[in-house]
Automatic annotation (TrEMBL), chain B:
<feature type="domain" description="Inner membrane protein YgaP-like transmembrane">
    <location>
        <begin position="4"/>
        <end position="70"/>
    </location>
</feature>
<dbReference type="Pfam" id="PF11127">
    <property type="entry name" value="YgaP-like_TM"/>
</dbReference>
<protein>
    <recommendedName>
        <fullName>Inner membrane protein YgaP-like transmembrane domain-containing protein</fullName>
    </recommendedName>
</protein>
<feature type="transmembrane region" description="Helical">
    <location>
        <begin position="40"/>
        <end position="64"/>
    </location>
</feature>
<feature type="transmembrane region" description="Helical">
    <location>
        <begin position="12"/>
        <end position="34"/>
    </location>
</feature>
<keyword id="KW-0472">Membrane</keyword>
<keyword id="KW-0812">Transmembrane</keyword>
<dbReference type="InterPro" id="IPR021309">
    <property type="entry name" value="YgaP-like_TM"/>
</dbReference>
<keyword id="KW-1133">Transmembrane helix</keyword>
Length: 637, 71
């Protein structure tokens, strides 16, 4: 039954009920009113009778003679002697008179009005005492049983007219209300649709995709099935939008939608993930593995797309994640697919299935970030120092400070890993802060022991954006009373080149402080020599990749030689890192390299070991130094 | 504002019939209904119906979005 019909019927029912209730109430009220009117009439008849009495004559005789003359159908009088408590002859008679007389004799109240029913007959009565006597005149009236039909003959027509009109108005109201309801529900449906769908492609939007993934996951979980969630990135959309206009972009999106629908038929859910991304969710059957789904989806993009008379090759990238293999919640599954898509784009391949190792935002990594934050805050990191041999003076003149993290559960975390995390999460500033504090303090301690070592600290590209860095370093140097020349800051070529103007400004400030500056990993970046020339640096560190193989590879040796020569020509000192054998060391000495760092000299070690190594022994010559250092290494290992 | 037709011919015929009947009982032959108010109400309803039939458009239909003219 339609809403309109339902409303009409219920409104008609309501009007019928209202009119019926009204009729009953009107009937009851009318009866009560007529009863009152009749009783007043009976009372007045009694008084009329009394008025005719002559007080000088005997009362009873008069009553007995008058009463019969006044009796009719509507007035039946009884004469009651209250002192003798009996009905006196002379009155009229109907079924009610005796009953009423008995009632009055029993009660002492003399003036009363009321009604009573005998069988189906209703009597109305009024009893009034005759003035100055013991007599009562009771006047009864047998009520007309045709009262109800009389009532309806009077009110029937207006009542039915009212009923007719009220039904009419009810139908109007029902029609209007039905329309109002329909409009509201249509509007709600539209809003619901708009909130959950992309209006261009008419596909579910991101929110709706999330919900349907969640639902499908629950079903899949119950049936022990697998779900393949795939994000499709239409690479060409931006180009189409830019070159052919947004209308063409819309046509492309529409065509992609049609093709996807055609490919999947009803086997999967397609959604518009936003921008140039579509999503497809398919239940994985035994025959349909992720690979075949991938191929099937990519096939969509092989045929040429015809848009406004332009033939376009549209390339798409796919990111695939599988439930329950990769995720347990809809949000996680979608996130994994996004990661896979990101990986595919980064590697410039057309698709990628999610792989934990490629995920930079995995839970594991998040945990590590959290632990690193705590470790920095609680100073649980260690600072190791790798000595650098001053070739000219044949002694350890400087050390490079290197942060080490021994995770309470996972053990040694490679510096590359945690420094990368620190850089990505902004923890690098506090990490550098801690390294600087510790290194400068250590430098002061060694100085107090009579060992004047230069300590090198690595700066990250992100540190170069720290406006407070130079003032902070200056404060630390002041506090520990360390000469600025004993602190060397190593900055990689790449870091300097990310924001050359900024780097130049900061390096200038640092140079003004008197701090030594060193270009780290030289030879691996894309630095311009013209630019490097302008920087106030003091030394250049040749990347270990060249040094490691220079004994075997002549071209590496040439690069090292050229770099040393270049550095000297620019007035810079040279540090060679990654020296692992005597041949390389000798060769570097011959080339005029000022400092040498590497496992051949010493591994990075905690400050106490280094202190123990440096303080009692003064290196006399190369051979002696080697023996000492090898000894130290052996002890430590 | 032009009144847009929304009544079918049958609808119009029924309304003319009802309209005339109600106007008759309401204002012409007053002996059937003795109650003045009831008579007036019927008469007014009759006029409303007759008017709707004459302009071939029912305002309540228009508000309720019903159209018997174009099915």
């Amino acid at each position: 039954m339609s809403l309109r019909l339902k409303l009409i019927l219920s409104f008609i029912t309501i009007s019928l009920m209202v009119v019926s209730i009204f009729s009953v109430v009107a009937y009851i009220s009318a009866r009560e009113y007529t009863q009152h009117v009749e009783q007043v009439r009976l009372h007045k008849s009694n008084e009329h009778l009394f008025a005719m009495l002559d007080t000088s004559l005997p009362l009873l005789d008069q009553l007995q003679s008058i009463v019969p003359h006044h009796e009719n159908r509507d007035n039946v009088f009884s004469i009651i002697d209250m002192s003798q408590k009996k009905i006196l002859p002379g009155g009229g008679f109907n079924l009610g008179t005796h009953l009423l007389a008995d009632l009055l004799i029993q009660s002492s109240n003399k003036t009363q009005q009321g009604n009573f029913t005998i069988g189906k007959q209703e009597y109305l009565w009024s009893a009034d005492p005759v003035p100055d006597s013991q007599y009562i005149i009771a006047n009864t009236y047998l009520r007309d049983s045709s009262d109800i039909s009389t009532f309806f003959s009077y009110v029937g027509t207006p009542l039915s007219t009212t009923l007719f009109i009220s039904i009419w108005i009810s139908v109007w109201a029902a029609l209007l209300l039905a329309r109002l309801f329909r409009q509201i529900s249509e509007k709600n449906t539209l809003l619901e649709y708009q909130a959950s769908h992309d209006l261009l492609t008419r596909l579910p939007n991101r929110g709706a995709i999330g919900r349907s993934v969640q639902q499908e996951m629950e079903t899949a979980k119950a049936c022990n099935e697998e779900l393949v969630f795939c994000l499709i990135d239409i690479d060409a959309l931006k180009e189409v939008n830019d070159s052919l206009g947004h209308k063409s972009g819309d046509i492309l999106l529409d065509q992609v939608t049609q093709r996807l629908k055609h490919t999947l038929q009803d086997s999967g859910h397609i959604g518009r993930f936003g921008g140039n991304k579509f999503s497809v969710m398919i239940k994985r059957s035994k025959t349909d593995n992720a690979e075949s789904i991938r191929c099937k989806l990519l096939e969509n993009f092989e045929p040429i797309y015809e848009i406004n008379n332009h033939s376009l090759h549209v390339h798409a990238t796919l990111g695939i994640a599988i439930f329950p293999e990769h995720a347990n919640s809809a949000q996680e599954l979608i996130q994994k697919a996004e990661t896979a898509l990101h990986t595919a784009k980064k590697l410039a391949i057309d698709s990628s299935v999610y792989d934990t190792s490629q995920d930079s935002n995995s839970a594991e990594r998040l945990r590590l970030t959290h632990d690193l934050r705590n470790a920095i805050h609680n100073e649980e990191l260690q600072l190791h120092y790798q000595p650098q041999l001053d070739v000219r003076r044949n002694e350890i003149g400087s050390v490079e400070a290197l942060a080490r993290w021994i995770h309470p559960q996972q053990g040694f975390i490679p510096p590359d890993t945690f420094i990368k995390i620190a850089e990505q999460t902004g923890l690098i500033q506090s990490l550098t802060d801690w390294v600087l504090r510790t290194a400068i303090k250590q430098c002061a301690e060694w100085r107090d022991m009579g060992k004047y070592l230069t300590v090198s600290v690595n700066l990250s590209a992100r540190n170069l954006h720290d406006e407070t860095l130079s003032s902070q370093i200056s404060n630390l140097l002041h506090y520990w009373d360390v000469s600025p020349g004993k602190l060397c800051l190593e900055i990689t070529e790449t870091a300097m080149m990310t924001n050359p103007a900024h780097a130049k400004k900061l390096l200038k400030e640092l140079d003004d402080l008197g701090v030594r500056l060193s270009i780290d990993d030289f030879g691996t970046g894309y630095s311009s020599l013209g630019y490097l020339k302008q920087l106030p640096v003091d030394e250049l560190k040749i990347d270990k990749s060249f040094v490691l193989n220079m004994a075997k590879d002549e071209s590496d040796a040439s690069i090292v030689r050229a770099t040393v020569s270049l550095a000297h020509d620019l007035g810079l000192e040279v540090v060679a890192e990654g020296v692992e054998d005597q041949i390389s060391q000798d060769e570097l000495s011959r080339m005029g390299c000022e400092y040498i760092q590497g496992y051949h000299i010493a591994r990075p070690m905690p400050h106490d070991e280094l202190t123990a190594m440096l303080i009692p022994t003064r290196i006399k010559n190369n051979t002696q130094a080697d023996e000492t250092l090898v000894g130290v290494q052996a002890n430590r290992l | 504002m032009a009144i847009k037709r929304n009544l079918h011919n049958i609808d119009i015929a029924i309304r003319i019939l009802i309209g005339i009947t109600l106007i008759y009982f309401g204002f012409v032959d007053t002996s059937y209904i003795s109650n003045d108010m009831a008579r007036w109400l019927l008469g007014v309803f009759g006029i409303v119906n007759f008017f709707a039939a004459a302009v071939r458009s029912c305002p309540i239909y228009a508000l309720a979005g019903i159209n018997t003219y174009q099915k």
